[in-house]
Amino acid sequence: KQWYQRRVRAIAIETENTAECSDGLQQDYRGQRSMTASGRSCMSWASQFPHKHSETEGNYPDAGLGSHNYCRNPDDDEGGAWCYTTDPEVRWETCGIEKCGGVILII
């Protein structure tokens, strides 16, 4: 039998945050997900119905809030990006934004 030596090269690629994922507390998440992890629709940040709140664009100017209902994390919640829901019975929920970033090893 003959043995052949095979050289394997591995490349490490650092991935970056995208609109579909975010790392850490997800304060920088700027994607367009507008539904919670359980499937509830998000309420517009500019609205005060059905839930009154103080997380407004004026109070959190760098948090990506505005006249939209996309998931955000203006108050650095440990659960990550979240939103107020349009369900009068459920005030807010996290959105289940996937974590990204890190290293991919390609062989």
Describe the structure.
- A hairpin with a 7-residue loop joins strand 2 and strand 3.
- This protein is mainly beta and about 110 residues long.
- The chain has no helices and four strands.
- The mean pLDDT is about 85.
- The strands form two sheets. Strands 1-4 form a two-stranded antiparallel sheet. Strands 2-3 form a two-stranded antiparallel sheet.
- The chain is globular and about 35 Å long.
Biggest sheet overview: 2 strands, antiparallel
Helix-strand sequence:
EEEE
Q: Structural class, from helix and strand content?
A: mainly beta
Shape: globular
Give the DSSP E fraction (strand runs of 2 or more residues).
Answer: 5-15%
**Amino- and carboxy-terminal Cα gap:** 27 Å
How many beta-strand elements? 4
Radius of gyration: 20 Å
Q: Low-confidence stretches at least 5 residues in length (pLDDT < 50)?
A: none
Helicity range: under 10%
Mean pLDDT: 83
What is this entry, summarized?
With 107 residues, the chain is mostly beta strands. It has strands spanning 11-15, 82-84, 92-94, 102-106. Strands 1-4 form a two-stranded antiparallel ribbon.
SSE blueprint and pairings:
Layout: E1 11-15, E2 82-84, E3 92-94, E4 102-106
Summary keywords:
single chain; 107 residues; mainly beta; two-stranded antiparallel ribbon; 0% helix; 15% strand; globular
